[in-house]
Every structure is written in C-alpha cells, then in structure tokens.
Specification:
With about 160 residues, the chain is mainly α. It has a domain at about 1-95. It is built from 4 helices and no strands.
Length: about 160
C-alpha cells in the first residue's frame, strides 16, 4: 500500500512539474491540455487513495499516524496550490470566464456522478431487500412443508398403534 501511495504521489509531483514548466514558458492554456489533464488524473488518483486510506486505516498504511497525517495534508495542499495556479493562469491569459465555465461543468459532472452513485446504492439496497424477502419466503415454505411432513408422520405413527 505504501508503494502504491508513493507512486501516486510521484505521479502527482511529475504532473505538477509539467504544468509549472509550461506556465513558466508562458504557454497558452489550450496548448497545455495534456499536462493539465495529467495533473487532474493524478489529482483524482491521489484524492481517491487518501479517501481509501482514511476509510481503511487499519493496515492500509504502515507508518506513524503523524507521518500519514502530514503526508495527506501535504498532498492536499499541493493539489490546492496547483488549482490556484491554474486558475491564476487562466486569469492572466484573460480567460477567467473559461475557468468559471470549467468549474461549473465540473460541479455538474460531479453532481451527476454522485446522484448516479447514490441511485446505484439505492437499487442495490432494494435488490438486497427483495432477495432477503425471497429467501425468507423460501425458508417459511420449507419450514411449513417440514412441519406438515412431521405432523403427517406423527398422525400415521399414532394410527398404526
């Protein structure tokens, strides 16, 4: 797990360096599509790993809790700083309106993802309830059949005596 986190962090560092190098060369934001996409992909992977580590904290990370907390904070801060840098670059290039549109679209996409995720969970819960109800019905019928066989056997045994 530590190796996985280290690789993700290295990927994020590389993506940040590529974006910074492009910004230092005063490249147009549109010409940096690959670098920015790489940053966002790395950002997403690191954020997902942070969530996973926080959720499954038992043996997901073999180090001190303080070290883990520092590493999570550093990565969160690095992501936040790069987001500010990208926003400032859009503004510097006179494309603030495009950055606002990107943020608005990102919010819509995230909302759609969240609602589809919640809907999938709701469907799974409903299906699980249906499955539980079905198995309960099967158990009740099987129990009733066994009870009837037992009573019939008892009646038959008493009739023979």
């Amino acid at each position: 797990m530590i190796g996985e986190i280290a690789l993700l962090i290295k990927g994020l560092d590389t993506a940040c360096q590529l974006v910074r190098a492009g910004l230092d060369r005063k490249k147009a934001i549109e010409d940096m599509g690959g670098e920015i996409s790489s940053f966002f992909a790395s950002k997403e992977a690191v954020e997902a790993k942070i969530v996973e580590v926080k959720k499954h904290n038992k043996d997901a990370y073999l180090g001190s809790a303080l070290e883990e907390a520092i590493q999570i904070e550093q990565q969160s801060q690095k992501i936040e700083n790069m987001m500010k840098t990208i926003a400032q670059e859009y503004s510097r290039q006179g494309k603030s309106h495009k950055w606002l549109a990107v943020q608005k679209n990102a919010a819509k996409i995230q909302k759609a993802r969240d609602s589809s995720y919640i809907e999938a969970i709701r469907r799974k819960v409903i299906q699980d309830r249906k499955d539980d109800d079905f198995y309960l019905g099967v158990k009740l019928i099987a129990g009733l059949v066994l009870l009837m066989v037992g009573i019939a056997g008892l009646v038959f045994a008493l009739a023979l005596n």
